[in-house]
Design goal:
single chain; TIM Barrel; 12 helices; 40% helix; globular
């Protein structure tokens, strides 16, 4: 069987596939699906949905944002995960840094048991108390803590057999505005960023499997957003930092990703060095983009195959796993 994957990741609207979903997912250029809270009702429903998707296409990466705290898409029957900043407060107070490894292992194990291939975590942004969208999603405002604790988190993901995604490169914590809603600019120099926001990426470059770009413009470095910038992706991330893993754009339907249509933005992202482009909540943009990719013979990627989860677990076994029960009890005690 071919190991080639399409380079576009899309979303769907409901709890099961529509006829249009089936048509879109069947296109050779679609190699990823991201799920949201609207796609989840129960474990059985989710497993059926994922089975439907895999029946259409084996070579597709099924992903989710299951960070914990404000960003946890699946709740009912899944362990409630606190924000990473809450975990940091607990770890420092109780001298229990192992908690990061354990929580990442638990989260990854639960996701693998329902057929999820990739969790978009950890957040490597520095909480500089300026951001309206990052905040407690970040581990800390201290760069050393972000590096240490996210490294432990990645170790837990890897133990469970799930790849890691560091986001949002080169950093989203230094601006107040939400890039979902508007174009955001950070006026800092590359030198400043290398000493702060980029530090986690340079330190963890050999552990990170995927890096997701931020929709933040850094005009002192390049006039293009990181997802569209060879300066950011080739000169800095690949050459200067020596990062060898995969690169994803953030969602190209976000207001902060620019005014061009999705097909043009996708081309810009792939040309700049992204291995996969995301388009969410814009089915018209998806249809336009897959037509553009078909017409222009955009190639598929074999590199993306490393993200596929081939070791399926049984959800019932996960529920009775003693280690998982112990971690859940610890998390419950944190909330009480």
């Amino acid at each position: 069987m071919s190991n080639l994957y399409g380079r576009l990741m899309i979303d769907i609207e409901g709890l099961s596939l529509s006829e249009e979903d089936i048509f879109v997912l069947s296109n050779k250029n679609v190699g990823g699906l991201i799920l949201f809270s609207r796609n989840y009702e129960s474990i059985e429903q989710l497993q059926n949905l994922i089975s439907e998707v895999n029946d259409i296409k084996k070579n597709i990466i099924i992903s989710v944002d299951q960070e914990g705290g404000r960003v946890q898409r699946f709740h009912e029957d899944f362990t409630t995960i606190p924000s990473m900043q809450s975990l940091t407060s607990y770890a420092v107070k109780e001298n229990d840094k192992r908690i990061f490894h354990d929580v990442a292992w638990l989260t990854s194990t639960e996701l693998k048991a329902v057929g999820i291939d990739l969790n978009f975590a950890p957040v490597l942004d520095i909480d500089e108390s300026k951001s309206s969208i990052i905040g407690d999603r970040a581990f800390s405002k201290n760069v050393k803590e972000v590096i240490e604790f996210s490294s432990l988190y990645i170790g837990g993901m890897h133990e469970a057999g799930m790849k890691s995604t560091g986001k949002h490169f080169p950093g989203h914590g230094g601006v107040y505005e939400d890039s979902h809603l508007e174009l955001v600019e950070d006026q800092r120099s590359l030198e400043d960023l290398l000493h702060e926001d980029i530090k986690p990426y340079s330190e963890l470059k050999d552990k990170l499997d995927v890096i997701m770009c931020a929709h933040v413009l850094f005009p002192e470095v390049d006039k293009k957003l990181p997802s569209y910038s060879k300066i950011w992706l080739e000169d800095i991330l690949r050459d200067k930092l020596q990062y060898k893993g995969l690169i994803f754009s953030d969602d190209l339907s976000m207001k902060g990703s620019g005014d061009k249509n999705c097909s043009k933005k996708t081309k810009q992202a792939l040309d700049a060095g992204c291995d996969m482009a995301l388009i969410c909540n814009d089915r018209h943009g998806v249809l336009d983009t897959i037509n553009f990719m078909d017409d222009n013979n955009i190639g598929q990627s074999e590199k993306l195959s490393i993200l596929k989860n081939n070791n399926l677990l049984d959800w019932r076994d996960v529920q009775s796993n003693e280690r998982i029960l112990e971690i859940r009890n610890k998390l419950k005690s944190m909330r009480s």
